[in-house]
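S., here's the first fold you wanted:
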Amino acid sequence: MLVGSPEYSALNINESTDISAIWKSSSGKPVDISLFPIFDVSFGTWVNGTAQTITKKLDNGSAVINYNWTQKKGSYEVSISLGILLKKYWLM
C-alpha cells in the first residue's frame, strides 16, 4: 500500500516541508522491497492556478519531494499517485 507523510503539515509563508511517498505492506508483514520493480510516483499540486507534477522514482520503497510553494497564506493540496493508487494530503 502507498502511504504519504506527513498527512498534514502547518507551514508559514515561504516555509517548506518534505513530503514522502512510502510503500508499506498492508498485512504488516515485512516486504523485500529489492524484489519490486522501480516505480514512478507522481506528486501533484496547484501553484498560482497552474497544475504542477513532479515525478520521482520509488527507490528502495520511498520517494521524497521538498514542497516549497507556500508564497501565500492558504491551504495546499498535494496528491501522491502510483498507477491507480491515489492519496491526498493537506498543507496549511
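And the second, which I think is the more interesting of the pair:
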Amino acid sequence: MAVGINTERKGVEVFWDASLSPHKKVTLRFSRGVDVSETLEFPNDGLALVSFPSDFSGSTHMEVLDESDKVFDSGDLTIK
C-alpha cells in the first residue's frame, strides 16, 4: 500500500452544534445558488471533514439536517 497526498482536493473542517438534535446521523447540504446543491451524511458528532476540488474558491451555504430532514443548524462557508 502506498501513502500519498491528494493534491486534486482540499479539505475543510466544518462544525455544527450536535446538541441541537438527538439524532445519531445528520445530512450536510451545501448549496451555491438555486440550482447547485450536494448532500453528505455524517455521524452527529459536530465535526466533519469535507473536500472540495483544489481549484474551487468561493462561498457555499451549509445546512445541517436531522434524520427527519429538519434543518437545525446552518451557516455560510468561504473557501479560499
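Why I say that: Residues 70 and 78 are 24 Å apart (CA to CA). The mean pLDDT is 90.

Talk tomorrow,
H.
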